[in-house]
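Minutes, project huddle
Topic: does the predicted pose make sense with fe (ii) ion bound?
PN asked that the exact inputs be recorded in the minutes so nobody has to dig through chat later. Recorded below.
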Amino acid sequence: MAKNFLRKIRNLPTLPEVLASILATLDDPRSSAVELEKKIRYDQALTTKLLAVANSAYYGFRHPITSVGRAVVAVGYNEVRNLALGLSMVGYLHPSTFRHRQAARQLWLHSVAVAEACRLVSKVVGYEDGDLAFTAGLLHDVGKVVLMAFFPDDVDELIKRMQQGVGLMEAERELGMGHQQVGRALAEHWELPETVRMGLSYHHEPSPRLANYPLVAVVHISDYLAHGLNLGDGYRLDRPELNNAALESLGLSGPRLAELVKEVAARRDDIQRLWEALLGVAPVRG
Ligand SMILES: [Fe+2]
Ligand SMILES: [Fe+2]
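Predicted holo structure (C-alpha cells), as shared on screen:
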C-alpha cells in the first residue's frame, strides 16, 4: 500500500460520535439495550430513520412501530443495533454526494446482500453470532466506499484498468490502493472493534492463522454467494475467487453450498427491501 495513501487515510475525518459509540458496543458484552436506546434517542435524525426502516416492507409489521423501545421489542436488541449501525454508516458515506453515485449505490446493495448471506451462512454452519456476522458483512467493503468517497480520481484510474481487462485485485496492487488495506487502515483510524476489523481487512484472504477465522470465512463465502446474485459490486467487474479451505473449514461441501446458493437467491427481495430502506428511498408505511 502506497505510503501517502495511508497518510491520507489517517487524515480522514473521525466517525460521527453516535456511530463510533454504537460500533464500540459490538465488542462489549456489558452493553445493554437501555444504553443503546438512549444513544439512538439522542440522535433525532437516526431515530427517525430507524423507525422508517422498522416500518418498512422489509419487516412488514401490521402495526406501526412508534418508538425505539418498541423497535427493540419487535425486532430485538441486536437487530436494532445492526440497523442503527448500518443507517449511520450509510448516512455518513451516502452515495448521493459521490461522483460514482451509481457504483456506490450498487456497492451498498452488494454489502446488504453479503450481510444477509452472512446471517444465513452462520445459521447453516452453526456459527454462534449471526448478528455480528451480519454487521461484519455489511461493512466488509467499506474500504471501497471510502475510496469512492474521498479518492474519486484514483477510483477512475482503477476503473479504467479494469475496463482493459485487469482484475480488481491486480489493478489495486498496481495502484497501491487495495480495498482491504484501506480497510485495515480505516479500522485503525476509526478504532473499529476487532470482529468487524477482521472481516473488513481479510475477506479475500481468509487464513486459519487469523483471529476470528470462522467469522472471516463466513464473510468470505457470503461475498462469493452475493456475487452469484448479480447485484453488482460497486466498481468491481470480475468475480472474487472462492477459497476452498475456508469452505471446508465451515463444513460446506458441494451440495450444501449449492443449497446455500438457492437460499441466498430466495432472499433477493428482502435484500432489495432492506437496501431501499437503508438508503432512504423506500415508501414508509404509516
Ligand atoms: Fe471486497
Ligand atoms: Fe464484497
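Observations noted during the meeting:
- The chain has a mean pLDDT of 91.
- The radius of gyration is 18 Å.
No decisions taken; revisit at the next huddle.
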